[in-house]
Specification:
The protein has 2 domains: 21-168, no CATH class; 171-285, Winged helix-like DNA-binding domain superfamily/Winged helix DNA-binding domain (Arc Repressor Mutant, subunit A). Strands 3-4-1-2-7-6-5 form a 7-stranded mixed β-sheet, with helices on one face. Strands 8-10-9 form a 3-stranded antiparallel β-sheet. A two-stranded parallel sheet has the order 11-12. It is of the alpha+beta class and 296 residues long. The termini are far apart. It is 28% helix and 28% strand. It is built from 7 helices and 12 strands.
Length: 296
C-alpha cells in the first residue's frame, strides 16, 4: 500500500512539473474612465468555463479570465513603472481624447534588482515602437501578452492601466495648412511650423508645395533663410528637418548603448515644443536620429 501511494505521489509531481507556464489576463477594476488589467505568468491547467477563454492556434498559451479579480496577488511595490500618453481620435466626431497608459512591472525573484529597470525599459521600447504601434485596445493588450509570452520570460506580473483624461477638438499641431479652405501666404514661420510638426521626419520641397500650395521658388527661399538662422538642416538635396540646439547624430541604425549609458526613464512627446521643454531639463544629452534613403 505504501508503494502504491508513493508511485501516485511521484506521478502527481511529474504531472505538475510538465505544466507549462501560461500568460493569464484578468480584469482588476473598471470605472467610467479607466480600466486596470493584470497580466501574469502562471503554471496552470485551466478548466473549461464560460468565464475563461483559452486561446488556441498562434495564441496558444494565452488565457483570458473574464471574471474580475480585485487583487493582483502581490504585496511588494512594483519593481518598475512607466507611463505615457496617447491621443484617441473618434471616427464619428473627430474628437481627440487624451489617455494615460501606465505599466507596472513585477519580475521573478531570480532577476537581479539592478537589471529590472533596463528590462522594463526594453519591454516598453518594443511595445511603443512606431513601426508597429497598436492602433486599438485589442492590439495593445495582445502585443503586451505576446511580448511577455515569447520574449520577456523574467517578467512575472504586469499591471496595465488605461485612463482617459480629457476630450476636445483636435490639437493645433494636428491641423495642417493643407486642410484649410484658403491658400495662406508663405512665411518662414509657417514653413518652420510644418517642419516642427513633422519632426523627426524630414520634409521635401514638394511636401511644402503640396500642403501649402506655394511655389517651389518661395519654398526654397524660406528654407534657405531658416537654414542660415540655424533652425533647419538639409539632410540631402531638397530634404529638410528641424535643427535644434542639442547636437544631433544622424545614423542609419540606432546604436546599442552599454548598460551604464542606458536611460532610467522614458519620456514620450508628441509635439516639438514638448521635446524642447524636456531637453531643457536634461544634462549630458545625446540625441540620435535614424535617417535612411530608399531607392536611387
Amino acid at each position: 500500500m505504501k508503494l502504491i501511494k508513493r508511485e501516485e505521489r511521484m506521478s502527481h509531481n511529474k504531472k505538475m512539473a510538465e505544466v507549462e507556464e501560461k500568460v493569464v489576463m484578468t480584469p482588476k477594476c473598471k470605472s467610467a474612465n479607466s480600466t486596470t488589467l493584470v497580466i501574469e505568468r502562471k503554471a496552470v491547467e485551466p478548466e473549461v468555463s464560460d468565464k475563461i477563454h483559452v486561446a488556441g492556434g498562434d495564441h496558444t498559451g494565452i488565457i483570458i479570465n473574464k471574471e474580475k479579480n480585485y487583487e493582483n496577488g502581490v504585496t511588494e511595490p512594483c519593481h518598475a513603472q512607466l507611463e505615457f500618453y496617447v491621443y484617441l481620435v473618434s471616427g464619428a466626431t473627430g474628437t481627440h481624447t487624451r489617455e494615460a497608459r501606465a505599466l507596472r512591472f513585477w519580475f521573478k525573484p531570480n532577476m537581479p534588482p539592478n537589471e529590472r529597470p533596463y528590462e522594463a525599459q526594453a519591454f516598453f521600447r518594443e511595445l511603443v515602437s512606431p513601426q508597429d504601434f497598436p492602433k486599438d485596445y485589442v492590439g495593445y493588450i495582445k502585443k503586451i501578452m505576446k511580448l511577455m509570452q515569447h520574449k520577456y520570460n523574467q517578467l512575472k506580473l504586469l499591471e496595465v492601466e488605461l485612463r482617459q483624461e480629457a476630450a476636445g477638438p483636435p490639437l493645433p499641431a494636428y491641423i495642417e495648412d493643407s486642410v484649410l479652405n484658403q491658400t495662406q501666404v508663405i512665411s518662414e514661420q509657417r514653413v518652420l511650423d510644418m517642419i516642427e510638426n513633422a519632426y523627426p521626419n524630414p520634409l521635401t520641397v514638394d511636401d511644402f508645395v503640396t500642403a501649402g500650395k506655394w511655389s517651389k521658388a518661395d519654398v526654397k527661399d524660406a528654407l534657405e533663410a531658416l537654414e542660415e538662422k540655424g533652425l533647419t538642416r538639409a539632410m540631402s538635396e531638397g530634404v529638410y528637418v528641424r535643427q535644434h540646439s542639442v547636437d544631433t547624430q544622424v545614423v542609419k541604425q540606432m546604436p546599442q548603448l552599454c548598460s551604464s549609458r542606458q536611460p532610467s526613464i522614458a519620456v514620450i512627446t508628441a509635439l516639438y515644443c514638448e521635446k524642447q521643454a524636456v531637453d531643457a531639463m536634461m544634462d549630458n544629452q545625446e540625441t540620435y536620429v535614424r535617417y535612411t534613403t530608399v531607392g536611387d
